[in-house]
Design a protein that fits this description.
alpha/beta, five-stranded mixed beta sheet, globular
Length: 192
């Protein structure tokens, strides 16, 4: 089986997953969803937690996270199964990260609207991390701004990723490119 890695760029409740080989060849791309349509709070769990108040927020967020973890695991497992059927062995995964600041305790998060947004992003990225770990896939984080400088990947790989949209067709957005670069970096770190 040919080694490959997953790169994931998350948004609120959904993300872009791209699978690549070490040369930067895109072998899969898909949209993954990690929230149920009927989940309380929708794509904004910390906004909902703010509205229901601190006493109920911790239990609500724990239940919400359990559901997103299950859906994330299902989405990642489905991608891996399909890639294995095509002859690819997933060696690693990389999650595109934001700034990487550590969040304060929940009362402080709910008291500051910018932290609510940051916490939501972290929640979805953490669900993907836990999903990969539960599937025994080594997972790393790559800050988005570090991916943009292109210093850690060979120029031909960067060029392959940049031009992939021409052969793949749409969509091939900045999210896809970041996820692909992160996946290449993860695969490079495995030695494959």
């Amino acid at each position: 089986m040919k080694p490959a890695a997953l790169g994931i760029r998350m948004h609120s409740g959904w993300g872009v997953l791209v699978a690549v080989t070490s040369s930067g060849e895109i072998v899969d791309r898909r949209r993954i969803v990690v929230i149920a349509d009927d989940i309380a709070g929708g794509k904004q769990p910390f906004h909902h937690a703010e509205r229901i108040g601190l006493p109920k927020a911790e239990k609500y967020l724990a239940d919400y996270t359990k559901q997103t973890d299950e859906l994330a695991r299902k989405a990642i497992a489905e991608a891996i199964t399909e890639l294995e059927a095509k002859g690819f062995n997933i060696k690693a995964a990389a999650i595109v990260l934001a700034s990487g600041h550590t969040l304060p305790p929940l009362p402080q998060i709910l008291a500051a609207h910018p932290l609510i947004h940051t916490a939501e992003g972290e929640l979805f990225r953490d669900s993907i991390r836990r999903a990969c770990e539960s599937l025994r896939i080594p997972v790393m984080g790559c800050r988005e701004r570090d991916l943009k400088d292109g210093k850690e990947l060979p120029a031909p790989v960067i060029q392959t990723i940049a031009n992939a949209g021409k052969s793949l067709g749409p969509p091939w957005t900045a999210d896809h490119k970041s996820a692909a670069a992160a996946a290449c970096l993860a695969l490079k770190k495995t030695g494959d």
